[in-house]
Amino acid sequence: MYKIKVNSAHTFDVTKESLEELDTVKSTNNNYHILQDHTPIHAEIVTSNFNRKLYTIKVNNTVYNVDIYDALDQQIEALGFEIGASKQVNDIKAPMPGLILEINVKEGQTVTENDPLLILEAMKMENVLKSPRDGVIKSIQVKQGQTVDKNMLLIAFEA
After folding, report:
1. Quick one: pLDDT at residue 81?
2. For the chain, which ranges sit under pLDDT 50?
3. What is the DSSP letter of 73?
4. Distance between CA 6 and CA 11 in Å, rounded?
5. pLDDT tens digits for 46-67?
6. DSSP code for 70
């Protein structure tokens, strides 16, 4: 069962079976035609964040913000933890030993989540390390061409 929260105000319980029973046709990439009780409904996914299960959906020209909570999210909430709360990542460490091929940021630079920070070559493969969050680069602890060990501090964010 899924718990759907619309505009942070209205909550609905939805089963997988009830979703499968919907008379839905995908018309284009993010557009759907839904028939409910012989009434046509046009739905469009305007924005989506699959990892956070957050969506902005336009239904018949009205925009809704939708949060989806699966069984695990509901268990976490029942235990009293905040859903979506995560540890603030302030340090980027080497996930494996390798060679710094390229550094794409500077100290003091503002970055957004998923911006490429640097390229680490390991086992003859180039690995792009991306920013885990929005923030400001506090310090860069490595230089291009430097060999690094696993768990070595590469970049620190301002807290």
Report:
1. 60
2. 83, 85
3. H
4. 6
5. 998 877 788 899 999 899 999 8
6. -
Alpha helices in the chain (DSSP H): 16-20, 71-78
For residues 54 and 5, give the distance between their C-alpha atoms in angstroms, rounded to a whole number.
10
Rounded (5°) CA angle 37-42-47: 130
| CB proximity list for 142: less than 8 A, separation 6 or greater | 100, 103, 118, 148, 152, 154, 155
The CATH number of the structural domain formed by 91-157 is: 2.40.50.100
Say if residues 137 and 105 touch (Cβ distance below 8 Å).
yes
What's the burial of 3, exposed, middle or buried (CB within 10 Å: 0-12/13-18/19+)?
A: middle
Only one residue has tokens 């680069």, namely 137
Domain with CATH 2.40.50.100 in the chain: 91-157
Q: Which two tokens stand for residue 14?
A: 């939805």
* DSSP label of 109: -
- For the CA atoms of 109, 114, 116, 119, the dihedral, rounded to the nearest 10 degrees, stands at 130
Cα–Cα distance, 104 to 102 (Å, whole number)? 6
Task: Report CA-CA distances (Å) from 25 to 40, 54, 57, 61.
Answer: 11, 22, 16, 18
pLDDT > 90 fraction of the chain, expressed in percent and rounded = 41
